[in-house]
Amino acid sequence: MTSTLAISAKGVGKVILGGEHAVVYGAPAIALPVPSLATEVSLKETPTPGIHIFLDHYPGPLVLGQSEDPAPAFLSKAVSVALEALEVTDTPSVSLSIHSSIPIASGFGSSGAVSVAVIQAFFRYFGRNLTPEELRRLAHEAEKAAHGQPSGVDTAVIAYESPIWFRRETPVETLPIGRPLTFLVAETGLRSSTREVVNYVEKKWRRDPDSYETLFSRIGETVTAMRPALGDPQALGALMDLNHQLLVSMGVSSPETERLVMAARESGAWGAKLTGAGWGGNVLVLTPPELEQAIATALITAGAQHVHPLTLGNA
Ligand code: PMV
């Protein structure tokens, strides 16, 4: 049965606490949701045949299925993955409005959030429930259209909307955070393509497999040590610094990133690292709660375009 009311669904933003890039090669990663950033989707029946999409960043509406369909590949794919899983064969007549506060191409998982929200909206529209695991699996199919061979960490954390332990080909584990952790996410303002950075790392790995596999396994060890350190912010911060150093050795940092990492550490942060694919994007900072404001100011002075507060765990 379909709904005649507007259905809404959302996908949150995300950051990676540790393990980016190495996760593509089988190492574990820890990822965190960013609930203050989200993609909101509203789906409702229309008299006009077809699926009409109204999207923030594109002149709309877009009608899926037209030969010059300008919708991003992952978006068309999210719609088709959802309809296939729902076993809907006749294209429904619906409008799909998508608004997002998640900056694009900055490491916040904007495409994953759109995929999760769109798939969830179609399931709700057809009156069907989805477990986080089913949602993750379907959104991962759509992400493959956006990024080629993503590890799946983005869609997993967005679908579960919880801190997660992620490793390719193994079940996702949600991670409880007891003691509150106060993070800041600083945007360098530099956009980069995840696909390009992942391809660069792959090229370097093919040229020098020994060095790169050593880096991947050292990152894996660092992330493994982060898990018990979730209750010990100082130890966790030191592991974030170590993870960052390994990413620098991999060649995925940038001068803008380094400026923000240095500014955070010099103003008393427990740890700071690039988060996501790199070559710009975001820096994740773990701060003593009493220094949150001072460190946010230092980040802005060092060139951050925006600083987002992110506190996880129970007070
Ligand atoms: O979407 P981003 O920029 O946060 O990067 C995803 C993390 C990578 O490990 C670099 C790629 C992947 O597929 O896991």
What descriptors fit this protein?
315 residues; alpha+beta; 7-stranded mixed beta sheet; 4-stranded antiparallel beta sheet; 9 helices; binds (3R)-3-hydroxy-3-methyl-5-(phosphonooxy)pentanoic acid
Explain what you see.
The chain has nine helices and eleven strands. It starts with 6 loop residues before the first strand and ends with a strand. Helix content is 40%, strand content 23%. With 315 residues, it is of the alpha+beta class. It binds (3R)-3-hydroxy-3-methyl-5-(phosphonooxy)pentanoic acid.
Question: What's the SSE blueprint?
Answer:
Elements lengths: L6 E12 L10 E17 L5 E5 L6 E2 L9 H13 L8 E7 L9 H16 L6 H16 L5 H8 L3 E3 L6 E2 L6 E7 L6 H14 L1 H18 L6 H18 L4 H12 L4 E5 L6 E5 L5 H10 L4 E7 L3
Parallel strand pairs: 3-5
Antiparallel strand pairs: 1-2, 2-5, 2-6, 3-4, 6-7, 8-10, 8-11, 9-10
The structure holds (3R)-3-hydroxy-3-methyl-5-(phosphonooxy)pentanoic acid.
Gist?
The protein is of the alpha+beta class and 315 residues long. The chain has nine helices and eleven strands.
**Head-to-tail CA distance between termini:** 42 Å
What is the percent of helical residues?
Answer: 25-40%
The 3D shape can be described as: globular
Bound molecules: (3R)-3-hydroxy-3-methyl-5-(phosphonooxy)pentanoic acid
Structural class: alpha+beta
Strand and helix order: EEEEHEHHHEEEHHHHEEHE
Q: Count the strands?
A: 11
Alpha-carbon Rg, integer: 20 Å
The oligomeric status of these chains comes to: single chain
